[in-house]
Amino acid sequence: MTVSFGRSYAEVLTILEHKSHSLKTLARLSGYDPFTFYRGADLAGLDLTDQDLTGLNFDQANLQKCTFDNVRYDMGAFNNSIISDDSGIVVDKYDGYFEDIRNEHAKRVYLFIRLRPELVDTIAHVLGKGVSQLANEIGISRSTLKKASNSGTISYETCLAISKLIEEHHATFVERGMETFVRQPLLAFYRVRSQPGMEHVTRENYLQYLETARRVYLYRRENNYPDHWDNFKDGPTMLEFYRRYFFGEDGGPNLYDMEVTPEEARHDLLSDL
Amino acid sequence: MGNNRKRILTEALSLDAWHDPFKLDGNKLGVFVEITFNEGRLGGNDTDLPFTFKLGLKRAILTIDLEEPLEIDRRSIARSIPENVAELSRVLGAKQKAQTQRSYGGSLTPAALHVSLSGKAHDETEVTHEDELRIIQTIPQTLVIPRPLNRHSYSWTMEPSWQPTLQGQPWNPVDPPRLKIKPINSLNAVMPAIRVNISCAFEDIHITDILPKGRNTSEIFKEMIFNEANVAAAKQHLKLVLRDADLEPGKLDNRFSSLIIASILATPEP
Fold first, then answer.
1. Which of A69, A177, B38, B116 has the highest CB neighbour count under 10 A?
2. What is the pTM for the complete model shown?
3. How far apart are CA A203 and CA A190, in angstroms?
4. One-character DSSP codes across A203-270
5. Structural element, H or E, at residue A65
6. Which residues of A touch B (CB under 8 A)?
7. Which residues, listed in sequence order, are joined to residue B196 by a DSSP beta bridge?
8. Which positions ≥6 away from B140 have C-beta within 8 Å?
9. Shortest Cα distance from B77 to chain A (angstroms)?
């Protein structure tokens, strides 16, 4: 059932006086997309016992000191929230979205990705296809897709191919009621280090890498670097070096004097997505 | 959707800005900004709103943009408090610590700030009245942190030191100008504009006390006990509606982008 009214001051009272205390019902009353409704919300201290929170996402929401007894939720819904350690909610390292890599500068960031383990199997199940068939369809090898389904490290290009597959069959996911599963965060970002091998990178840091890559690209444009530099993937070490300068972790000056504060950059970056 | 919603966020503050008149006498021009933050009950006179509420800002950013060819004289920028950067970061750190330790619903008090600043293990309730007064007197009500942007714009982040939201005036509007402009060397019929913006992030909008209108007191008290979940969802909805009313069309997807709350041009003031 879609709710056709909404998005005006009148719903404030509707929500306030509604007899249900379920966050899901209240989000539907608002007329906004329930999935994104609680992003950035202040929900600290709420008693959410027995609530069904599936189909909701809580990125950047404050959920400290909430009671989560017997709560149902989608995996990953709380991965980017502010939440107490003893909440009992499973928070794992899959905090990235497919939208994060559908960015023109993502190809300039030399990063690897792991997918939520059940993702590939779910896609195969929803589309009613075998793994080999799927691999054929998106033009990657069967073993690579197997690796992706075992949460192995895959390249950005493979991940993009899988993302396109989900996009193309969006209607099927909606039909099967799996839409919110693929909307929740599903990716974990990794970078190559010589010493511990693969190193996990949080989504926040990944977005900083993305912004760094964008600025390095702009800098090269402005200073007439040859075109083939655009296709050059900056090595992880160099990118980390730039990032620390841009985001001021070393307290150093802004390397290229791009005249944007880290705070602003973060805001710009998030609004681009 | 109602389309004639007026910008309500503006009511969280009053803003005025002026500058010295343009003259070719080789003097720098001062730019002055006067801000007063008020946390008032809104919606009382507004027939569109079936309720009243309190609106405050947890943080705001003032930006002064000079149109080219005007340039900022970097040495003239008002750096209100951080004479001592170490002290400022100590205050900010203490504030953060006190905030994480407070119980739900409790607000940050000068007493709590004193406890975390002094690092003593005693309880908040043991802090004497004198200690509280000392905190109020030594720490400015609003922490102002300058943030350089470029040669033509400069911004200041304003954050309350112990209150939940910004209150009163963050600086003396007249005494030092916010910044000075380098002497100009030509006068045109249309002089370059000096724009003053106040912006904040979506998360920094602080809404409290939503009360339905047009009911007598006893009815309100009967219904005052709304469920916390409903209150939280209603606040979030109101925040989203306020944000949408304040956004430029076509920018509706800017979830975490900053909202421009107020934007005025500085006028020459002889």
1. B116
2. 0.73
3. 10
4. HHHHHHHHHHHHHHHHHHHHTT--GGGGGPPBPHHHHHHHHHHHTTTT----TT-----HHHHHHHHH
5. none
6. 7-13, 15-18, 21-23, 26-27, 30, 32, 36-48, 60, 64-65, 259-261, 263-264, 267-268, 270-271
7. B64, B264
8. B80, B81, B161
9. 17
Contact B238/A at CB under 8 A: yes
Chain A residues within an 8 Å CB radius of B2 = 8-9
Per DSSP, the three-state class of B186 is coil
Contact B104, A65 (CB under 8 A): yes
Strands B13-19 and B153-160: unpaired
Can you name the residues that pair with B260 across neighbouring β-strands? B199
How many helices and strands in chain B, by DSSP H and E? 5, 13
φ/ψ of B141, rounded to 5, equals -65, -40
A212: amino acid identity, one letter: T
Which of A156-170, B146-160, B243-257 has the highest mean predicted lDDT (pLDDT)?
Answer: A156-170
Instruction: Determine the residue of chain A that is closest to B99 in CA distance.
Output: A64
Query: How far apart are the C-alpha atoms of B35 and B63, rounded to whole Å?
Result: 12
Q: Are A48 and A23 in contact (CB under 8 A)?
A: yes
Taking the CA of residue A70 as centre, how many other CA atoms within 13 Å lie in the half-sphere pointing to its CB?
A: 3
If you count residue pairs, one on A and one on B, with CB atoms under 8 Å apart, how many are there?
119
Q: Give the tokens for residue B198.
A: 């106040």
Put simply, whether B1 touches A (Cβ < 8 Å) is yes
- Amino acid at the residue B62: L
Q: Which residues of A touch B240 (CB under 8 A)?
A: 7, 30, 32, 37
CB-count exposure of residue B210 (10 Å: 0-12, 13-18, 19+): buried
Q: Is the separation of the CB atoms in A134 and A141 below 8 Å?
A: no
Pairing of strands B267-268, B13-19: parallel
- Listed residue (B141, B262, B242, B270) closest to B198, CA to CA: B262
Confidence of residue B93 (pLDDT cuts 50, 70, 90): low
Distance CA A98, CA A159 (A): 8
- Judge: A271–B257 Cβ closer than 8 Å, yes or no: yes
| Measured distance CA(A260)–CA(A238) in Å, rounded | 20
Instruction: Identify the closest residue of chain A to B220 by CA–CA distance.
Output: A17
Q: What is the ipTM of this complex?
A: 0.74
DSSP state, residue B254: -
Beta carbons of A21 and B223 less than 8 Å apart: no
Q: What is the mean pLDDT of chain A?
A: 80
Task: Tell me the C-alpha distance between B234 and B58, whole Å.
Answer: 19
Considering only CA atoms, which of A4, A57, A56 is closest in space to residue A30? Answer: A4
Identity at B213, one-letter amino acid code: K
Query: What's the rounded Cα separation, in Å, for the pair B242 and A40?
Result: 14
pLDDT at A229 over 70: no
The interface residues of chain B toward chain A in range 41-70, judged by CB-CB distance below 8 A, are 48-51
